[in-house]
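Pasting as-is:
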Amino acid sequence: MHSILELQDIVEKAIKKVQYPSHPARLYEPISYIMSLGGKRIRPVLLLLSSELFNDDVTIAVEGALAIETFHNFTLIHDDIMDNAPIRRGKDTVHIKWGVNNAILSGDVMMVEANRHLTRLDTTVLKDVLTCFNDTASGVCEGQQLDMEFEQRRDVSIEEYINMIRLKTAVLVGGCMKIGAIIGGADITDADLLYDFGVNFGLAFQLQDDILDVYGDPLKFGKQVGGDIISNKQTFLLLKLKELASTADQALLERLGSSTNHPQKVEAITELYNRYQIREIATAEMERRADIAFTSLDQVSISEERKSELYQLARSLINRES
């Protein structure tokens, strides 16, 4: 079994070997740019880990890992456009650097590239992998649509929000793990257990992301801290605040929603979060989801020793600061 660092290195080397056409430059340069911005490469590493649980030859899953990372970065390009986000991983977002039209088209090509990577997998697993990938991709798009719709609604429930982040974020994590397991030769029971682990871990991961958006260190977080507050995103923190706030504080929250003074808005809503202990409540929910995830992982019919790297990675991501 490879360590997490070794798997990250495998992913980085594989990404650097991918050659995109040089012309037209403004179509392909944004792809090279966003793929080179780094990050933890969590999703492709999870795919490789899942494959290696069942097959020692990790190279059989590298094209699947590249497909997932390419697809993930495609979604980031389009999400940043929809969110009007200026920064991604501490750098200008693609639409800021190349313009919105170029960013949309480069993202479209990345979806093509993701499928191209998948077609290089062994034909014995290709059908099942493509089915899982397509279901995952559809779910991510559904989740993004719901996320945008929630920005225009004032009656979103926490249950609806959890379903949205399950689709937008968690099913991709689950899909990574199931695809990796399929490539590695797992039976359907173990593949489904890893999917369940991935989905619930993905929920915990997104809840932690919601917390970091408010309380993270800007130098470590790599994104604009308070971005969710500025854009009035319906996060777990905001919905729980609406549920618990007094009538007076709900009225204040309503007024702050239309404020264009972003620093003041972030400061005021963060103060409300602190007053109602929203961070602590969100952390407890994140940990509950993580416990559900680890229960599924415990049931996968592989030795605890082989699962140790996966446990280690999951725990470190849940407790991350960026």
